[in-house]
Queue: 2 jobs
Job 1
Amino acid sequence: MSHASGRGPRVTKAVVPAAGLGTRFLPATKATPKEMLPVVDKPAIQYVIEEAVTAGLSDVLVVTGRNKRSLEDHFDRNLELEEVLRHKGDIARLDEVRASGELADIHYVRQGAPRGLGHAVLCAEAHVGDQPFAVLLGDDMIDPRDPLLSRMIDVQRRHGGSVVALLEVDPSQIHLYGSVAATPCGDDVLITGLVEKPRPADAPSNLAIIGRYLLDPGVFEVLRKTEPGRGGEIQLTDALQAMAADPSLGGPVHGVVFRGRRYDTGDRADYLRATVRLACGRADLGPDFRAWLREFVSHEMV
Ligand code: G1P
């Protein structure tokens, strides 16, 4: 059953695909999932799960691949470490350590073979059931100061169907993303077509899909029928294209254009930018770090 028209049930579940190989970050990701690389002092995936929880989605399913152990350990309690910190009277760190173990109601499912984002989403079907759900990609980090998901939830409540997050990118970059054809619809857009990683000449626009989706459960049925596409993988973009073309499959598909700060933490340069920007904004590290950065830029940069 889909909820194509009007208000559907409330979105409560988030799916976080985390089974990628992280090849852009080798050798760091040889034995560590890329989602566990720290941004300042928290693993990238913790920001993503905190984002979901902030938007009211505290039931989180992580789709893992190999090396899932450190992920599971991170979001579990560590009683031995807690005891050591308590004994030392280090209450601030104790609170931090406990917080990541109590952040959300986190579940795991394993994606046997890396057959694409669409396949990862399909692995979530048994957990998600028949209600709309969110998908948050770990590589895309939305600055916690610029909320996006709550806006998308509002749009989903208003229109039903599915909602994707969009970012205007330079046309030379569109081949790295899913690209959409869209028409204005109030503050948002109605999506009429989607293409996964097009050549610049074939891109319907310079609106790129960034890794936040709210999906109608009708997507599972569509994904089951979706043939491997770009890169030989089952593409979520292709399933959404089918839904945009035929709203009886669980459409319509709307888009929310994001104008805040977003980082691709799977890309080394953007990862460094994320680290610097977040460190600058931190109350504990920011003042000293900003002073050092100013000095560094004015005297040591050549
Ligand atoms: C995935 C999607 C793509 C989207 C991108 C956002 O691609 O397939 O449509 O634009 O995420 O980060 P990936 O980057 O996983 O190859």
Job 2
Amino acid sequence: MLMPDNCPSVLLIYTGGTIGMIENPDTGALETFNFDQLLKHVPELKRFNYRISSYQFNPPIDSSDMEPSYWAKIVKIIHYNYDYFDGFVILHGTDTMAYTASALSFMLENLSKPVILTGAQLPIGTLRTDGKENLITSIEIAAAKHPDGTPIVPEVCIFFENELMRGNRTTKINAENFNAFRSFNYPALAKAGIHIRYNEHLIRQPDPTRPMKPHYLLDSNVVVLTLFPGIQESIVHSVLHVPGLKAVVLKTFGSGNAPQKPWLIQQLKEATGRGIVIINITQCQSGAVEMKRYETGLQLLQAGVVSGYDSTPECAVTKLMFLLGHGLSQDEIRHRMNSCLAGEITKEDEL
Ligand code: ASP
């Protein structure tokens, strides 16, 4: 079909995951289909008067195999095609989608176009799939513009089951239901019902005087350490002495509290003294760390642990990888972990 020159244009990047699968009628097993056949499975796409092109990972991957090198590949694809499309839709397995969305929010600095990640709990080739709805609405959002021609959502987002969420605020919360993602600490950027209602005051805007700046380098010498009652000194010692370790995401209790055992505070203090960055985030799904609220949190602060505020674990891990990838000093990383780079944290003074 011939499209007018000014018709909306969207690049679909298919990385893999359930959405792009179809049930083999003979074996019943889920298999990936060639994305060139997308129109066969989603004929509704023809009804958009959009120019839709696609790029397919070859082979498509289950998102459990997602890696920083694939994030760099996605950034490269977006950067390469940046001037040719109004927006980008990334089809991705749900399992690690929140990590990819968080990583991309830092790697695509000063993004001025929509990058919408979506997927499905049921393959697009099955009758009750949620994939079609997610895909079609994501395309519409990726192409949506204000009357002056600027995109409505120039952010990395996840669209799932009628909600558009800031990507670096999301977490996968359900392995079964269609509403698999939640953004506990930041409201939805849009809700899709009969109309797509955007909460425009919540959407970040780029600096129009600067171009989008792609970043490719990540350093994954990071570990997540979850505290629990009875945690052993020898185990904490081993984790903090892993060769090459540069940063720790410490998942503490409630509003950022840890056991007051002297050995724990000592170990953390020694680790920060050796240059390891330790970020305090809560194990609770919702809410923020307030390290000055209880004595137990204050002790962590005195040991050199930095507040991760209301960051999700996915965001804390990928932000650390991103900052470490820039070869910054411990002080610079601590400072930037304390600053909001892409709408990922709400600082206490903003509450
Ligand atoms: N294991 C799949 C993946 O994350 C699940 C999904 O797509 O929802 O790739």
